[in-house]
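Retro notes - structure team

What went well: the batch runner handled both jobs without manual restarts.
What didn't: labels got mixed up in the shared folder, which is why I'm recording both outputs here explicitly, each with its sequence directly above its tokens.

Job 1
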Amino acid sequence: MFDWIYFLAPNLKQLGGELLTCLGQTFTMIGVSGILSWILGILVGVLLVTCRPGGILENRPLFTIFDRGIDIIRSIPFIILIVLLIPLSRFLVGTGSGVTGSFVALVFGTVPFFARQIESVLSEIDHGLVEASAAMGFSPRQIIFGVYLRESIPGITRVTMITFVSFVGITAIAGAIGAGGIGDFAIRYGYQMGYRDMIWLTVLIILAIISIFQFFGNMIIRRTTH
């Protein structure tokens, strides 16, 4: 059954177990850091929209801190950011390397980008709708959940897919410098040991992961667009 797979990727027979282990590490990074980044990104994006000048929770100092902080973090190349955050990773999760050690860097590398995307999506909501909701006596919490987030589900899903593609890419970068995962597998066996079939196999696996995620994302967009 697997003869044709082994024909296309002859080194898979001896490295299949290692590949599965690295895939598990990648899914762990996606599951933990990805979900946490998604939640924090939406929170920060909502904060940027509601606390900006003229927002429903206007708070200029808080807005300035987050706005400038996001710009600063986004300007740092991810591979340098990982190194800078090693002390913080050791403090928060007890290690600065491996899969667990990558969680902090992945969150810091993803949240600023995703938060900007969320800010852009929420800013497209008709301001008249927000004003009308406030005039009807809606609380800020009701406006955030009932207007901003509810009306932005297609847009949030769309930018989530964009961010997911970027996130999978930086998990591979993290793996290349010791965090494990499929990026580490590709570097060790595909590049250092010269197993070209393993490089192509990891590329196909990454494409499959992204395609599956985009399929479900597009399905959500179609069902929530009105």
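Job 2
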Amino acid sequence: MGAEPTGALPAPPSSRPVRLDEVAALRRETYTVHMLHTHLLHCWAVVAPDGTTVAGPSVATPAPDRATTVRQVFAGLIAAGWDGAAPVSVGTRGTGNILADAPVPVPVVGIAEPSRLRLAEDAIASVAKALIGDVTISTDASLPRGGGPAGLGYSITSDGPLGLNIVGATTCPVAGVDRARTAELEAIRAGIGRAKCELGLFWAPAHLVIESDSAFALSYLVRTRAGRAPVRGDVCCDKVAARILELVEGTPTAFTRVWGHSGVAANEIADRASRLARRHAQ
């Protein structure tokens, strides 16, 4: 089973872009993951340095969720002999490859000691980060006239080979001095919560970008994160903001302002989703 790891845990894995013409030179020591992901077909294969290939099943629509796919690829790497220390090159046709350095040992399957589980999470995260890339969550909220639950909408995308493309909507009762501002924060919370639920253990974005057309919501989060008192805040906003910052803890996160109804595709999608949710609740 091997000795129990002692001392400090390894540093988090890192990733860097790799040109396609570098892949051949790297192949002698690199495990290469080839992927094809379309709306009709989803398949992958792992090629070991010695040429051994472990292929996953070709899956017709609907494709498995991203967390399942990452889990399958990780299992394929293990089956091909990956020890967690060798670099992994992940790419899809037309997107190039990303080399994910994973300087952590893979624990023995079945061992449940917390330190070994942590090492397993780090090893999985190194692959997930290369597969998923940077994640952008665009959100919006819509309030009905005369009261009632707010409609919350969000669009979740990522730029990795396994690009996320999720549109969702929900409703939420809101309170506070300014219900509209609370609703905008609730929309951000809902979008992040959905992304984390979708990826589960494989929530490992290299960077997270939160987009909103609410300058108030973004300023509220930035000031709260910096330990400064938000402008015109109230208890309801404080609670939602604290939950949002808890959800993104440990993840490099940027809050970006976009102008509503200005043609920004993700914001327009989130806006439509929020209005649909509001109408459904009425």
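One thing worth noting from job 2: Helices lie at 20-26, 66-79, 114-132, 179-199, 215-225, 235-247, 265-281.
We'll revisit the folder naming next retro.
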